[in-house]
Write a structure and sequence with these properties.
The protein has six helices and no strands. By secondary structure, it is mainly α. Helix 1 crosses helix 3 and helix 2 packs across helix 3. It is found in: Nucleus.
Amino acid sequence: MSDESLITAVSECPVLYDLTLKAYHDQTKRNQAWRDISAMLGVTAEVSRKKWKYLRDKYLRERKAERDRKKSGAGATSFKRWKYMVIMGFLGRHVKERVTSSNMEQGDYSQEIAPEILALLAPSMFPQREKEKENTLAVDEDEHFMLSLVPSLRRLSTQRRAQARMRMQQVLYDVEFGE
């Protein structure tokens, strides 16, 4: 069984991918379609289904990657297009991407800065003791300074970001406790 023959066979059975068809929601009709395709290709229905699921998922990943490349504004970079993108194009109007969400707000940078640094420089973000409530103007300046570093930290790789955090912590330790 070749991938092309499976893709062609599935494309001729809209009951397997067209959600708007009433027959799509009829498991008996979908099972029959898989049995027909499997008989035509000479493999079991289970093998056909698993292979189709892989191909469909790969198509969706590639389609998303193409869209991300276009919207990133990275310019015209060359990339090798997946060889089945064109023949699987019939799926384009039948599949929808899921909307994802995040529990992190747009301006929530607290996860980007080491908690130890925030605790030292931005006590307003943590429960305060009486002594820490003094000199709130300096705290605000320190907090703003640390938040101004976030864009630079975000541009770094994970490893470089960890190195930068460690160096910042070392500098603060040296200043506070001497060398």
